[in-house]
Amino acid sequence: MTCLLGIDIGTTSTIGILIRPPDRVLGIVSRPVRLSSPQPGWTEEDPGQWWSNVGDICRELLATAALDPHEIAGIGVTGMLPAVVLLDDGGNLLRPSIQQSDGRCGEQVAEIRAEQDEKAFIARSGNGINQQLVGAKIRWLERHEPQVYQRIATVFGSYDYINWKLTGEKAVEQNWALEAGFVNIATHELDDGQIALAHLPRRTVPRLVRSHDILGVVTPDAARWTGLAAGTPVIGGAADMIASALGAGVTRPGDALLKFGGSVDVLTAAADVYPDARLYLDYHLIPGLYMPNGCMSTGGSGLNWFAENFAGQHRAAAEEAGMSLHQYLDSLAQQKPPGADGVLCLPYFLGEKTPLHDPAARGVLFGLTLSHDAGHVWRALLEAYAYAIKHHVETLHDIGYPTRRYIVSDGGSASRLWMQIVADVLGAPLQRLTGHPGSCLGAAWAAAIGTGQSDDWNGAGAFVRFGELIQPDAGNHSCYGELYPRFRELYAQCKPLTGGGCK
């Protein structure tokens, strides 16, 4: 009986899962990851720590499951994108990775925008000119770290790096390359002209592979480090949010996933491509489908920030009630009416990605009076992220992508109040999931497809169960319909005022 291994190179943790089709999870193991911000707006990590974690995770999974490593038929690696990992010609790391949330390259984005016809660029690349582009980050290095830039021999992503460590094969998976700005969406091939915008020689970007294509096999050196069997097939890998969506059952055009993690992601399956600068475009794991999507800069991280910095006085009461601080704040917010008695929030605490693409956007609490308390503010925060989801959904519809079914996942979806607010704002039911382990499951199932263990992309759904279907409240939906335009107008009014403090 064969097993599949999925590994997720996440921003805050590395996670591994062992599954045995059709529906058994044999084990899940994680290790933390250190995220560094050496300067404001910078986010970096050590790829060496990812590889160290992979070794620990694989050995523990094999030991816990008492599994012969030869039973593993294939390995899939997923990760955040488009993180940037750089090697010299000896295969040595040149510097820490530059993460997808890094905001240092605003000037270089402006340079590329000034050089390019943006409409033509979007039509060719499928994505707009923004801080996701790897080319902008490389140009930043050219200007600020020339000693690194001059030694670049390989540029690829987080899971591409782990695949190379496992197999000795260098390649870039199609979604890393697409969001990097290196793929021509018409030909589905690497585009020399787009790579040249990064001021990189073409040879620095490895060959392109599809997610479920077999990239190579585990080398003897990697086998010794991980405990895996040498010769085990490794597939091209997957973007984390795309792998997560597959595991959640987003497999038909119109299916949508709302992911409530440290940030909030909005993804939908689509049969057609309508490139638009407001959102990101990725390939679905299922060949022939696409996944237009948006990602907010914050989500759970914004809630954590408020809870840790402004709600500590409620911690003792939460413990006495047998609740987490977040649950206790939910209970306070539950007592407040829709609209939080006039408190309105903009949740742009790290600027905002889609659909605004405004790194200068800032968080705002508007309408506060002495009659308001933590429950009002907490509800306003939950409502703000719901409004931002509605903004994404409206953008999808405006572009031409329908959304017919909403599935919710990740840690924030455990908040019954938050999910009810989102359902009320959208005026649509939300399907909760139970037992979804995240992106590692989608990566493992892609390995099952790539190695011929299954030909059913929907098979990943056997490992996940549907929970409650949350129905919208018609009265609350009407109220939020009046408040949502105010949310949009508040951003428009505040935008000219942002830009920093005193010099």
TrEMBL record:
Q: Some GO term, biological process aspect, for this entry: which one? A: carbohydrate metabolic process
Pinpoint the Carbohydrate kinase FGGY N-terminal domain residues.
4-247
| Database matches in Gene3D superfamilies | 3.30.420.40
The protein's matches in InterPro entries, at most eight in alphabetical order, are given as:
ATPase_NBD (IPR043129), Carb_kinase_FGGY (IPR000577), Carb_kinase_FGGY_CS (IPR018483), FGGY_C (IPR018485), FGGY_Carb_Kinase (IPR050406), FGGY_N (IPR018484)
Please indicate which superkingdom the organism of origin belongs to: Bacteria
The keyword Transferase belongs to this UniProt entry's keyword annotation: yes
Signal sequence span per UniProt?
none
Question: GO MF annotations for this entry?
Answer: kinase activity; phosphotransferase activity, alcohol group as acceptor
Kinase listed as a keyword: yes
Q: Which Pfam family is an annotated match for this chain, by its short name? A: FGGY_N
Instruction: State the UniProt keywords alphabetically.
Output: Kinase, Transferase
Q: Where is the Carbohydrate kinase FGGY C-terminal domain?
A: 285-449
Q: Which residues form a coiled coil?
A: none
Similarity-based family: Belongs to the FGGY kinase family.
Fetch the PANTHER family from UniProt. SUGAR KINASE, XYLULOSE KINASE
What is the official name of this protein in its record? Xylulokinase
Name its species.
Sodalis ligni
